[in-house]
Amino acid sequence: MKLILLGTSGYHPSDSRQTACLMLPELGVVLDAGTAMYRAAAHLVTDELDIFVTHAHLDHVIGLTYLWNVTQDHPLRQVRVHGAAEKLSVIEEHLFATALFPVKPPFEICPLDGEVALKEGGRLTHFPLKHPGGSLGFRLDWPDRSLAYVTDTTAALGADYVEKIRGVDLLVHECTMADDMPDQAKMTGHSCPVPVAEVAAAAGVGRLVLVHINPLANGEQPLDLDAAEAIFPKIVVGTDNMELDF
After folding, report:
1. Is the pTM higher than 0.70?
2. For site-directed labelling of 209, which of 24, 62, 93, 101 has its Cα 20 to 30 A away?
């Protein structure tokens, strides 16, 4: 199965990264709808699209306003947007307020309540994350593979979500701050490399990919991973349009 990292920046886009958006094209599933959402159009192969949003901060949902163009060349029979009920209500009331965005694209609002069935015998479950305003993590399981997506939270060995991601083949985890910025990470609800690596090791995951990178950290090596790799060697920094098989 293929996972495409359409956008790997946090907060705002940079010259090399758009904001949070991951896609499983064979399933018609998108995780978060940041500014990279427009890129989904090139990968649509299904007649339905399910978008799961972790929370309602703009860098994760602004791409919902791009859906008119996403579906222009590949019309979809149905588009569903899943998320916490209160966050979906905020998106409808504010992001699609008439004065801000007058013509809402056609999609169905689906508040998350329990697990969601996915194609090929899969299922998606969600769990709460500590972040200003609240956020959700997602775990996707099939009989022969698994994936977890954790963004907008402060990684810590004692965090409740560590058990929720135990044993996944692929963990995609946010990593906005450098290791010398733990206070800022805690204040803003974001993570540094070493604690993320500790979480990955403690949870026994197969591989770790870092996303939600600080848009000011440009270049080929936006994060120093030496200390993190000593804890968990199977770690890479995600880049826009990176394709991962799992």
Report:
1. yes
2. 62
